[in-house]
Amino acid sequence: MVVSYPVMEHFYTIQGEGRYTGYPAYFIRLGGCDVGCVWCDVKDSWDADKHPKMSVTELLNEVKKTPSKIVVITGGEPAMHDLSPLVDALKSEGFRAHIETSGAHPISGQLDWVCLSPKKFKAPLKEALALANEFKVVVFHPSDIEWASKFLKDLPIHCELFLQPEWSKAEIVLPLIIDFVKSNPNWKISLQTHKFLNIP
Ligand code: SF4
Hints:
Distance between the termini: 33 Å
Strand order of the largest sheet: 3-1-2-4-5-6-7-8-9
Order of helices and strands: EEEHEHEEHEHEHEH
Largest sheet: 9 strands, mixed
Strand content: 25-35%
Bound molecules: iron/sulfur cluster
Number of helices: 6
Shape: globular
């Protein structure tokens, strides 16, 4: 059976956020999301049916046209799909398979890196939090900083912790994030560096 996924876009760029900031990476943005963040900047991704389907082989062939070593599966909410066939195919060709997810759905596939970015609009599952290598909270409102800390008990001990100002609110929340991280050195700051670099 040919496995395929709704693909909104796929492109080779530089990872702008979180632990792998600055690494070249191939992004596969899958369609479909039921989380509903008010500040979502990829609302076009929400309806999976709007996006053409690509088979695992087609996606793999596109990735192989680049020298990328890392493939980031994002969305939308990529965990709404069974990612095992895609992840298996990527890994069998030697790529690192990363995911960026809200954690609102069970995570499938033997991923090399799980970046879990929880959203207030649909809570992350405990089983998803337990798989996080990286926990990245987008701070839209000052209260989000305190909210982020409530998940610590469900995260693996070596999970890397990031607070990231939402782009349009950075002027208000960044000074608060700086103070918080200086007082709570387990956390780090993530910035959307791709926006400074003017790349996708
Ligand atoms: Fe948008 Fe991501 Fe929130 Fe879905 S989880 S609504 S794609 S920001």
